[in-house]
Amino acid sequence: MYRNTYDSDNTVFSPQGRLHQVEYALEAVKQGSAAVGLRSKTHAILLALKRSTGELASYQQKMYRIDDHVGIAIAGLTSDARVLSNFMRQQAMSSRMVFNRPIPVNRLVSSIADKAQVNTQEYGRRPYGVGFLVIGQDKTGPHLYEFAPSGNSYEYYAMSIGARSQSAKTYLEKHFESFADCTLEDLIRHGLHALRESLQQDKELTINNTSIGIAGPASVHEKDVPAGGSFRILEGEPVEVFLKSMVPKETAEAQAAEAPAAEAPPDGAAPAQAGDQDVSMAE
Amino acid sequence: MTSIGTGYDLSASTYSPDGRIFQVEYANKTVENSGTVIGLRVKDGIILAVEKLVHSKLLVPESNRRILTVDRHIGMATSGLLADGRHLANRARDEAYNYREMYRESPPLKEVVQRLGLYVQAYTLYSSVRPFGVSTIFGAVDKTGPALFIVEPSGISYGYHGAAIGKGRQIAKTELEKLKLAELSMREAVFEAARIIHLVHDDSKEKEFQLELSWIGEETKGLHLPVPKDLCEEADRKAREALETFE
After folding, report:
1. Do B83 and A154 touch (CB under 8 A)?
2. Which H or E run includes A215?
3. pLDDT in tens, chain A (283 residues)
């Protein structure tokens, strides 16, 4: 019945010292649609691909506001995400109540990581089946963190999670060194380009299936953003101007091909996609 | 490992017929496959050094620290499951805090380590939990002077002059044994620690790694602090050079 003798229970180590149930939980994250996060010196942003079950259905929610200064994008089980984001909101509120200050992003991410760790060690529970990208700004500037069901959390310059996210990651790894000095508009364009890599063939980014989350000062295309640049989610109409700023994929690839050998060949993303094992399970 | 598949290795609450608890041994396996961590107890202080394996170049280098502070004067570094290590660090902080509350003085490391040993051991008794997948090196300068301990997944703890856990522990131990630890100054020990971490790292097999160093002692007025950036970089560079001339 099981694929493996040591995988029915998260309180069992395999002889190699692995925890199969935790590894399977990490697979659950890859079932969710992709989310991308990146940051510059001034901003941290999230971009996510929303799925819809059909013509008559609305699109799923991929981003949540936690506090004025923090927001998340999710990939995996939405119900688990709601439990964890509620917990994050409580932590954020308690920091404002007890210490009279917004909670440092690092502290917030660690608190859910510690919570998730317990579910990998005790019987009768399962690890959470959701991964987060968390962005926020605090005294030390803008930040981007990844949270995983294994209870690990890391800070990144740029990261992607979810289905076919390896292709987006390949894009980010190629360009991340330029992100630090990007304007918000350029940063969003990079994010959209990365997110586009995770699309299935013949699908494209539209104002309906794309969410953008921003922490940091307002873009020239935004109105009514508070001076501090608190976290906001752009969906629908306001996304259009950013989608239009994208360089069409064929043009981008042609440019890459013309560039000297330092650039990858136009089909550079292909081998990475081959390594992305969840492609067949994407939907 | 002849008992694999006989059913005696599926729970921490089961002995095998020859009296072993396999789940604890498997927990040790987790540690044996993780990045190397070493600790040096020298005449006036403690050095902790970690081979931090970098799984992505998108990681922010200064962030994601692997050496954690338990109390003003106590540092720890784990090898194994990272999340378990953080759980243990939180428990260690609670224990140190409780000791302070009760006795109104800074806790001796031995006391904190023994209490943690009891905690870790409790996770080897029941089928409802799994043992910790981490070994931890604790270092401190307390009223007894410099102190260095390892807590293993079984809950057992020993004091050491030089400690090594993780993948490269065998080579690291051999190197540590060559040193005259009791005569080294903290600064000298930083260079030795960096050299050992570079030596045990297998360039051909392993991913990229970053050297992380912290210390406690005269240099830091008894506080557990990261080794200053310039000294850390110098140690890193010298370690690379030493390795090149060695090969």
Report:
1. no
2. strand A210-215
3. 567 777 767 678 999 999 999 999 999 999 999 999 999 999 999 999 999 999 899 999 999 999 999 999 999 999 999 999 999 999 999 999 999 999 999 999 999 999 999 999 998 889 999 999 999 999 999 999 999 999 999 999 999 999 999 999 999 999 999 999 999 999 999 999 999 999 998 899 999 999 999 999 999 999 989 988 999 999 999 999 999 999 988 777 777 777 654 444 444 444 443 333 333 333 3
Instruction: Select the residue of A114, A124, A157 nearest B86 (Cβ to Cβ).
Output: A114
Q: Where are the beta strands (DSSP E) in chain B?
A: 37-42, 45-53, 67-71, 74-80, 134-142, 145-151, 157-159, 162-165, 209-217, 225-226
Go through the domains of chain B in sequence order and give each one's CATH number.
20-246 (3.60.20.10)
Closest residue of B to A10, CA-based? B130
Q: Spell out which residues of chain B touch residue A156, defining contact as CB-CB under 8 Å.
A: 56, 58-60
Q: How many CB atoms lie within 10 A of CB A195?
A: 29
- The verdict on B123 touching A (C-beta cutoff 8 Å) is yes
Contacts of B108 (CB under 8 A, 6+ apart): B140, B142, B143, B144, B147
A17, A116, A156 ranked by CB distance to B59: nearest: A156
Contact (CB<8Å) A155/B131: no
ipTM comes to: 0.90
Of the partner residues A113, A124, A176, the one whose CB lies closest to the CB of residue B58: A176
Min distance A52 CA to chain B CA atoms (Å):
31
- Nearest residue of B to residue A11, measured between CA atoms: B130
Residues of A in contact with B56 (CB under 8 A): 156, 159, 169, 173
Which residues have CB under 8 Å from A37's CB, separation 6+? Answer: A44, A45, A46, A47, A73, A133, A135, A144, A146, A156, A158, A159, A160, A191
Whether the Cβ atoms of residue A245 and residue A190 lie closer than 8 Å to each other: no
